[in-house]
Please model this.
Amino acid sequence: MHKQATFIKSFILDHFPNLVPGEDFDFFPFPPIDPQYGTPALGAADMFAMFNDTPDARAFMEYVVSPEAQEIWVGELGKLSANKRVNSAVYPDDLTRKAAEILVNASTFRFDGSDLMPGAVGSGSFWTEILNYVSGVPLKRVLMTIETTALDAYRQ
Model:
């Protein structure tokens, strides 16, 4: 088992093109900690920002989040849409469609912390030290290493 984002499918197929998604490899949502909180989704996202509130900018923002625009986005790029009105048939395959269903049915969405951290931490010490922890390195040492890297990264 490996906790990973939906983009892992392309990495797997690049290295093992004969594997069949959904048969040779699959995924499941991370189980909820407590059923009273529902099933959360953890992930990253592409974000749009409007810096000048003009009629044209507002119209563009309304368009890019519409089902019509999102169906282009997910059909061409294989991304997921949080827009519940996107037709699931436009997703390029069953695995991506399954991931989209998990996203739109999640009771809560939270951003993956490592995506919000400075690179030296999120894709650096955090990643490395979590691997060290599951390999037997004491938790206190792991956390101190991550914290030291974070302090350095946030000072810059």
